[in-house]
Amino acid sequence: MTDADPVDISADASFFRDDEYFDHVVYRELAQREKNGQRREMLVKLSEMEKEHYEFWRTLAPDQRPAFSKLRFWLIMFLRRLLGITFVIKFLERHETEVINRYRKIVYKVEEQHREKVEQFLRDEEEHEKTLQNQIDEPILRYIGFIALGLSDSIIEVSGVHAGFLGVTSSTLIAGVAGLVVGFAASISMGVAAYLKAKSELRQKSFTSGLVTGVVYLLSTIILALPYFLTHDMLEAFTASVALAIILASIFTYYVAVVNETSFKREVLENTLLIMGTAAATFLFGEFLGNLFGIPGYFR
């Protein structure tokens, strides 16, 4: 490209100006709300980096104020409170793929005097930001495995119990109470197992690990049993409970996929198949036992 052969980059400049300004404001707000000194320092660095990018692009797209989505901003603040700072940063990072690809396309379109600056910004997006983001440590991440243990085991086991009772009885109350009893006993068992596991590994606080596993197990058990106390139709209750199980698994899978930068679609499909497969197998076993002992099930 030469000065006699200019390329219009105004649309790209406006895009980068708006995007970098939004990220700058978000990181600045997150830093102001962060109580941990180390994490606050990392967020401040990210905010300053985005501000430098924004101020450069503003000189190339000075025609208007940067567009700013208040709805998206407050959604991110809500996610920060609900799911933690690490999730929010990784969530924002997912958008960076588009930004990086756009940087790569524009780097040789800008004038020679600006090219080095844009190349530096591209390196920031590819390397420096990720380095800073990975330095942010959050306590919840140390217990992700134990949360997954409690949630996945309760979803599979309690869904299986409910499916089994669909083949044995038409009473939603009995099925709901049975799910709660099994879930309560299993939550204690899983909590103790998690406590012993953490104690042997010496990496997490053993009591907290056991408590997290047991509480997550019990809460998910209650959620899955709830439909059985809201309707007297066994099939409706079972369908609603399985739907809740899939929703719970999907929400947590998305959280883990964002934090660990893995594929959400593959993981959620696998979890759904496991839930449905377990439900089908335990229903057939319950139906078999019902026929064997002459117990009147839902379909008999």
UniProtKB/TrEMBL annotation:
InterPro entries referenced in this protein's UniProt entry, alphabetically: Ccc1_fam (IPR008217), Ferritin-like_SF (IPR009078), Ferritin_CCC1_N (IPR039376)
Cell compartments where the protein resides: Endomembrane system
Entry's Gene Ontology molecular function annotations: manganese ion transmembrane transporter activity
Principal location listed in the UniProt entry: membrane
Keyword tags: Coiled coil, Membrane, Transmembrane, Transmembrane helix
Annotated Gene Ontology cellular component terms: endomembrane system
Designated name of the protein: Rubrerythrin family protein
Record organism: Caldiarchaeum subterraneum
